[in-house]
Amino acid sequence: MTTLAPAPHGTGGHPRRSRGAPAPAVRSLLRGLPTVPAVVLLAVFLAGPIAYCVYYAFTDMQLTGAAGTHFVGVDNFTRAFKDTDFLNAMWLTLLFVVGSAVIGQNTLGLALAVLMQKATQPVRALVNGVVIAAWVLPEVVAGYLMYAFFYDQGSLNSLLDAAHLPDQNWLYTTPILAVCLANVWRGTAFSLMVFTAAINDVPQELVEAAEMDGAGPWQRLWRVVLPVIRPSILTNLMLITLQTLSVFGLIYTMTRGGPGNKSETLPIFMYQQAFQNSLIGYGTAIALVLLVVGALFSVVYIRLLKLEDD
Amino acid sequence: MAAVATPPAPPVSKTVPAPAPRRPRRVRPGRLAINLVLIAVSVLYVLPLLWMVLASVSDTNSFRLKWPSALTLDNFDAVLNVDTTYRPMLNSLLLCGFGTAVTVVASVLCAYPLSRYRSRVRRPFLYTILFSTGLPITAVMIPVYSMFVQVNLIDSMPGTTLFLAASALPFGIWLMKNFMDGVPIVLEEAARIDGANTMQVLWRVVLPLMRPGVVVVTIFTFIGMWGNFFVPFILLLSPEKLPASVSVFTFLSAHDRTQYGQLSAFSLLYSLPVVMLYLLLARKLGGGFALGGALKG
């Protein structure tokens, strides 16, 4: 199918030209016409706000209105990097992204995908079903369920009690761990799907050849399967990092960033500065930091993917 | 679920009919252990879900996972009224229904030239789209809020719908273009020779051939919007305009512990549509995994 795709570009204009038709410049404008609705929507609702974001990050705008807004240069940023709450939020965001996405979802997803290859059919269907069910649930519902699960009198503690293990008030003592685990619970399905697809694409001859040469299951995994699916691992890491960077509802439902600021990641800090402390300018500066971090990851991600026909 | 049933992975033939014909004894304990580990993971995964289902039909409110002493539908009775369930669900349906419609129509139109014509702007355009799929939408919400305040779109359902549609567009266009690339050009050329214009070709020839792709984009966009909490949370203010995602949140913060049974019942009702749609999607995709493939480009 992909081999057919380049064909139209050369011949697509042919019938039209034979009918004696518009000049090339006009023709390419006409051809671009269908993109207009999408371009307008994207320009107004995405590019517009991003430009706004860059502008307002350098002002002292407050929630009360734009009337008293002044240009304050990089004040918001110098303020941010001196603000211990901001540095705390940066640190927690890093913990959250590395802990729940890079380590948690990625490793668990890969482990489950590898193990599922060897499991019996009903067990595979079971794992797939429950992992994907947690992923399909709306974010706030997942947050609510995880709140109930980690709550002091919740299911996790009753399990630990039953096993005679020490329990604790998860949402108070280690809220960041609780939200990380919650994000692993909710998000692993994505990695699982990516890795299952990737492992199914590994040429079977390769694995069998390694087996013939006496490679055990571990060696086959480390020396054959993992190197072959390396591009998928990279793509997956970039995508789940981007998704995890912008998680708001899950954490906000579970802890609201608390207690204190112990689970206050950047999106939550940004929201609280902008809407609870009414500092839109400062909140926007934090949003810009988040946007730049996301943009950097996004650039790396598109460099990993090559547009197949260019 | 149905998701695993399809991929004809080689191990299947080894597992089901006869226990490992080649290496009968060595593999078995390992496979048993793997199955046990996977079952244990599944149990951990299912506990929170099970709690929600049990809490919704239980007459006592508790965060502990326990079998209800008596089954009751009182919780569902209590939430099935206009204020708690019907209006938020209707709002969700309006926001996500129209939002999805706008996204799908705009991305079909936009994908056609991207898939069919080559021009100087095509490459930068595609890279911009791909780049925007990665941008954290959470980060633009504060500037969007300021912007909506200035143009008086705050607390407007159409404004919120259009924003939801725009935020789903990059991924929609990208998926749609990939599906459209799979439609062979030959029939299209025949239609052109018969005098059909671009819109006729798109509508009569290309779209019918890529209906599964359109369905996938539609369902996927709708599921994403249905679960979206932050966008309506920021852009809508009046209680009577809030969708179900926000009302789950306000329910959770406004009520004391005595009403978790009701909240569970409402959460179940709210989650039901996306679970059903996902099952439909999994069948369409012949196993959920094609989406992973589509993401890789």
Automatic annotation (TrEMBL), chain A:
<comment type="similarity">
    <text>Belongs to the binding-protein-dependent transport system permease family.</text>
</comment>
<feature type="transmembrane region" description="Helical">
    <location>
        <begin position="170"/>
        <end position="195"/>
    </location>
</feature>
<keyword id="KW-1133">Transmembrane helix</keyword>
<feature type="transmembrane region" description="Helical">
    <location>
        <begin position="36"/>
        <end position="58"/>
    </location>
</feature>
<feature type="region of interest" description="Disordered">
    <location>
        <begin position="1"/>
        <end position="22"/>
    </location>
</feature>
<feature type="domain" description="ABC transmembrane type-1">
    <location>
        <begin position="91"/>
        <end position="301"/>
    </location>
</feature>
<dbReference type="Pfam" id="PF00528">
    <property type="entry name" value="BPD_transp_1"/>
</dbReference>
<dbReference type="InterPro" id="IPR035906">
    <property type="entry name" value="MetI-like_sf"/>
</dbReference>
<dbReference type="GO" id="GO:0055085">
    <property type="term" value="P:transmembrane transport"/>
</dbReference>
<feature type="transmembrane region" description="Helical">
    <location>
        <begin position="279"/>
        <end position="302"/>
    </location>
</feature>
<protein>
    <submittedName>
        <fullName>Amino acid ABC transporter permease</fullName>
    </submittedName>
</protein>
<feature type="transmembrane region" description="Helical">
    <location>
        <begin position="233"/>
        <end position="254"/>
    </location>
</feature>
<feature type="transmembrane region" description="Helical">
    <location>
        <begin position="126"/>
        <end position="150"/>
    </location>
</feature>
<keyword id="KW-0812">Transmembrane</keyword>
<keyword id="KW-1003">Cell membrane</keyword>
<dbReference type="GO" id="GO:0005886">
    <property type="term" value="C:plasma membrane"/>
</dbReference>
<keyword id="KW-0813">Transport</keyword>
<dbReference type="InterPro" id="IPR000515">
    <property type="entry name" value="MetI-like"/>
</dbReference>
<feature type="transmembrane region" description="Helical">
    <location>
        <begin position="89"/>
        <end position="114"/>
    </location>
</feature>
<keyword id="KW-0472">Membrane</keyword>
